[in-house]
Amino acid sequence: MNNNVMFKISYGLYILTAEDGDKANGCVINTLQQVTTVPNRISITVNKENFTHDMIAATGKFNISILSERACFDTFKHFGFQSGRDIDKFDGYPHETATNGIPYIMDGANSFLSGEVISLTDLGTHTMFIADVTDGEILSDDNSLTYDYYHKHIKETPQQNKKGWVCKICGYVYEGDELPPDFVCPLCKHGAADFERL
Fold this sequence. Notes:
It contains 3 helices and 12 strands; from the N terminus they run E-E-E-E-H-E-H-E-E-E-E-H-E-E-E. The chain is mostly beta strands. A 7-stranded antiparallel β-sheet has the order 2-1-5-8-9-4-3. The longest helix is centred in the N-terminal third of the chain and has 9 residues, at about 50-60.
């Protein structure tokens, strides 16, 4: 099987944010889907390694900034390539606060929505949260960002003089002749199956 077929599925890209106590955080996800219209419900699937996952599991609330084609790679580096356990991702980062008290980003986003968890399903490495949509606004008429558009127009390509393995998801480069079979990308948390030789 050619596992790259999974990249042909049309995904959007989103900044998922949450807050627990006085700490806010956010991460990049590509797993948002509306599951019912009445009641208005969505599902998100979040890697358990993400600090944002733990906040949502504790509070049951989150926001999603729906990214547009105007999003820049710096947004992905800021929310996807560093951990909120180590830094405050909202310190000095421009944002607004929704009625649920959780921040959302506007730069590079065309809308946002708020969710309140009604159930969750353990999927091993990830948790699927089903949530009622409690708020949302359109911020611009810009086209929503797809995973395909991100890979073709926004994601930086690895430096050609490096040797090793590159993550097909985020572009992280592992330098070395052999990639350990249990290797996990330190940036996006995907396994060795999502790496290819440079």
